[in-house]
Specification:
Layout lengths: L2 H15 L5 H9 L6 H19 L4 H17 L8 H4 L2
Helix pairs in contact: 1-4, 3-4
Amino acid sequence: MNKETQKIVRKYAKAYIGGTVSINDLSDKEFSGKQLNDEEKLALSNFEKYRLAKLNAVHDDMAFHELYRQLQVLANLADYKEFLNGEYSKF
């Protein structure tokens, strides 16, 4: 695991243990037919736009796979409210 991945895992591991709702939790909720509120929809949309923009910007195969894994960690462990921040809404 490279240093960037380790940094992401350390940052979000405590949030995961605390039981916060992640992007993947929202995706599962939506897939199961439950209605998302406006905030949840925005967070999910922001994450998807961010994820696609980041992955489309990578042209090296190994870097793509490493970034893909990092984004999976974010989707699994980060509180979905993180993706309501302006940093993620610009994509």
